[in-house]
Design a protein that fits this description.
16% of the residues lie in helices and 41% in strands. By secondary structure, the protein is of the alpha+beta class. A six-stranded antiparallel β-sheet has the order 4-5-3-2-1-6. It has helices at 66-71, 102-113, and strands at residues 7-14, 21-28, 40-47, 58-61, 77-88, 92-98.
Amino acid sequence: MPFDRGQVVLVLFPDSNLRTAKRRPALVVQASNLQSGLAQTIVAMITSNSSRAGHPSRWFVPKASTEAQQMGLRTDSVIMTDNLATVHDNEIDSVIGLCPDMNAVSAGLRHTLGL
């Protein structure tokens, strides 16, 4: 199933050791209709660890904000565009929301990737 840029999904996100993973929300950052021929999607990790906020590659989304509600986030969250993963589409459980401000995410990605 192809996923669209800006969708917030519940996914088995791999840990940095690539041996373990945790089910968590993540943001689809790849282009919609990428049509790479591969059943995989590029996502950015979303964490509830607020201490990770404050970096130009990260966007803090308060639980009480309209954005958090639209994204289906139930806690204060940090979208980490410096923690990306390519996951198999079978590892994505569901779409839980939609990011209303992809400009903030794009700015984070530009900083992360040096674009």
